[in-house]
């Protein structure tokens, strides 16, 4: 039986570390702040945003949610972001995705000041990650790397197979694994003979968005399986991996819920505090306990 990587436990560890840093920053007169912008009434998005708001407040971060109708224009949204870029209460700005169809996502992301882009989606931060220089790293792939680090899993020289090539998960995930010297393969919907790749994976990251497509016979024995997928099937949450059978084959596996999801929120708080620290010109060594 595979060892379960407990994302809830590790996210709590990470959030406590963040809360300690918040205390030290407050002692220096800096209160980290996060603003989340949500358009429309999509139930899943509303639930994620509530989760982020609650977690931020618990960590001592000042948090505001700006909830706007789905009919909001792109111009109005960009104007709001420009105002928030200059609002000193907020060190992090997050625009919940997906946005309504009449809004160009890339134009909105580009309007966020890169130093407040705690999602790491702005072209400046995407470029920084590609170059391996300092910026903001997208929360979900960063959360996966943090889970591997907490579990003591070294990816150096390992064959990592990432399924999915989105800008928010697959691509940055592959880059982070490459930066840790894994040998990385990226698969997607046009990949021929997917299982030929997945069976070679020492580390398999599934970020597909389709329930239970990764079956036990696609998994290399004793490998590490990270399930990023969040799908709703018959009213229940499930990942992209057929968890019950896969956990018979893998050495490590993340569950859904309780795996990568909670780490995404923990990394959002981490990035917000990092943004506040950088804006105040405080180096990490000054705030570490
Ligand atoms: N746990 C968390 O914190 C988070 C979870 N998620 C979840 O992760 C999943 C992926 O999210 P996201 O990257 O935004 O999704 P996207 O829909 O943007 O990307 C999905 C990717 O999977 C590929 N794909 C689709 N079907 C197949 C298939 N049958 N075989 C191989 N590849 C396939 C697509 O290929 P192509 O490019 O060719 O279309 C695409 O690259 C979703 O379930 C989402 O809800 C997302 C963000 C955070
Ligand atoms: N600008 C932006 N940034 C994001 O980071 C972003 C986004 N938009 N849009 C949507 C996706 C999805 N996402 C999740 C966050 C937490 C959980 C999470 O906490 N999941 C829990 C379950 C939560 C539940 O019960 O619904 C778990 O897996 O255990 C899941 C998914 C962030 N995203």
Summarize this structure briefly:
This protein has 289 residues and is of the alpha/beta class.
Quickly name the level 1 CATH class of the largest domain.
Answer: Alpha Beta
Radius of gyration, Cα only, in angstroms?
A: 19 Å
Structural class: alpha/beta
Strand residues, percent: 15-25%
* CATH superfamily heading of the largest domain: NAD(P)-binding Rossmann-like Domain
**Order of H and E elements:** EHEHEHEHHHEHEHEEEEHEHH
Query: What distance separates the N and C termini?
Result: 38 Å
CATH fold call of the largest domain: Rossmann fold
Number of helices: 11
Task: Let me know the average pLDDT.
Answer: 97
The unique ligands bound to this protein are: NADPH dihydro-nicotinamide-adenine-dinucleotide phosphate, 5,10-Methenyltetrahydrofolate
Let me know the number of strands.
11
Low-confidence stretches: none
Principal-axis shape equals: globular
Biggest sheet statistics: 6 strands, parallel
Which CATH-level-2 architecture of the largest domain?
3-Layer(aba) Sandwich
Question: Domains counted in the coordinates: how many?
Answer: 2
Strand order of the largest sheet: 1-11-8-7-5-6
Instruction: Work out the helicity level.
Output: 40-55%
């Amino acid at each position: 039986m595979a060892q379960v990587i407990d994302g809830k436990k590790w996210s709590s560890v990470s959030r406590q570390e963040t809360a300690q840093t918040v205390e030290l920053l407050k002692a220096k007169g800096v209160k980290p702040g996060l603003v989340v912008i949500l358009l429309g009434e999509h139930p899943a998005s509303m639930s994620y945003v509530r989760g982020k708001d609650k977690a931020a407040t618990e960590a001592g971060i000042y948090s505001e949610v700006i909830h706007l109708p789905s009919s909001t224009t792109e111009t109005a949204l960009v104007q709001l972001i420009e105002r928030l870029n200059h609002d000193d209460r907020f060190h992090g700005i997050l625009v919940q995705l997906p946005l309504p169809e009449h809004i160009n996502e890339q134009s909105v992301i580009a309007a966020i000041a890169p130093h407040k882009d705690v999602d790491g989606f702005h072209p400046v931060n995407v470029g920084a990650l590609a170059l391996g220089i300092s910026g903001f790293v997208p929360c979900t792939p960063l959360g996966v790397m943090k889970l591997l680090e907490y579990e003591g899993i070294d990816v150096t020289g390992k064959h990592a197979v990432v399924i999915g090539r989105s800008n928010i998960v697959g691509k940055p995930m592959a880059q982070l694994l490459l930066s840790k010297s894994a040998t990385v393969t990226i698969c997607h919907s046009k990949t021929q003979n997917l299982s030929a790749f997945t069976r070679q994976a020492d580390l398999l990251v599934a970020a597909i968005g389709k329930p239970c497509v990764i079956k036990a016979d696609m998994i290399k024995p004793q490998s590490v399986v990270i399930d990023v997928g969040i799908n709703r099937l018959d009213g229940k949450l499930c990942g992209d991996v057929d968890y019950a059978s896969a956990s018979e084959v893998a050495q490590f596996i993340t569950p859904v819920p309780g795996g990568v999801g909670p780490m995404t929120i923990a990394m959002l708080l981490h990035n917000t505090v990092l943004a506040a620290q950088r804006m105040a010109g405080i180096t990490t060594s000054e705030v570490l306990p």
